[in-house]
Amino acid sequence: MQTCPLCGSQDTTDFHRDARREYRRCRCCSLVHVPPVWRLGPADERAVYDRHENSPEDAGYRRFLSRLFEPLRERLAPGTRGLDFGAGPGPTLSVMFEEAGHPMAIYDPFYAPDTSVLARQYDFITATEVAEHLFDPGREFARLVALLPPGGWLGVMTKRVTTPAAFARWHYILDPTHVAFFSEASFAWLADELGMTVTFPAADVALLQKW
User: Fold this and answer.
1) What is the mean pLDDT of the chain?
2) Res. 1: pLDDT tops 80
3) How confident is the model at residue 109 (pLDDT cuts 50, 70, 90)?
4) Which residues neighbour 45 within 8 Å (Cβ) at sequence distance 6 or greater?
5) CA 131, chain centre distance (Å)
6) Which domain holds residue 134?
C-alpha cells in the first residue's frame, strides 16, 4: 500500500507507468507521486542539480521567475521580509526581491543548508521549481506555513498535472528528481488543510495566503 506524501492517505491508485518508474495518484488530494523505491539517493540527486546553470545575470531566467515574482510583489507591503526555500546553486529570486526592497533569507538543503533560517518568521515564502522535488511535501509545506503570520504569503511555482494523456507525454516527468506533481485540486486541498486561500495568477504559479 502506497501512502500519499502530501495528505497521508493510503487511497492511491495507478496513474502512469513508463520504462523507468511508476506514478500513483491520490484519490484524496489528487497529488501524483513517485513511490520511494524509484527516488534518487542524495549524491545522485545533487549531481543533477549541479548541472543547473541559473544565475541573477541570466535575463531569461529572470523572465521565467517573473511569473511568480510580479504577482507576489504586487501583493506585498513595502519592506516585508521573505524566505526563498530551495534556492538552488544560483539564487536569483531572492536577488530580485531584494532589488525591489524586500530582504530575503535563503535555504537549500544542498547549497544553503543553514537550518537556523527555518526557525524565524517571514512575511512571505517562495518555493520556485521546488515542490516537484519534495519527498514529503505535506510536512515541508506545513513547516513553511508555520513560519508565516496571518496574512502571510506562500508563492509556489511548479508545473501542474492536467490529464493522464498529457502526463504520459510530459517532458516534466523525464527529470529523475521530479517525484511530486501537483494539480489545481492538490493546491486546493493543501490550502484548505493549512488554513489558506489559493489563487493561480499565472502559468505554473500558485499563491497561497494564510488566514
Assistant:
1) 96
2) no
3) very high
4) 110, 133, 177
5) 3
6) 12-210
Contact 81, 55 (CB under 8 A): no
Residue 54 has pLDDT above 90, yes or no: no
Task: State the Cα–Cα distance between residues 62 and 135, nearest whole angstrom.
Answer: 27
Element containing residue 85 per DSSP (H, E)? strand 82-85
* Long-range contact pairs involving 86-90 (C-beta distance under 8 Å, separation at least 24): 86/127, 86/128, 86/129, 86/130, 86/133, 87/111, 87/112, 88/49, 88/52, 88/54, 88/129, 89/49, 89/50, 89/52, 89/54, 90/52, 90/53, 90/54, 90/55, 90/56
With 0-12 CB in 10 A as exposed, 13-18 as middle and 19+ as buried, what is 146? exposed
CATH number at residue 168: 3.40.50.150
**191, part of any domain:** yes
pLDDT in tens, 88-100: 998 999 999 999 9
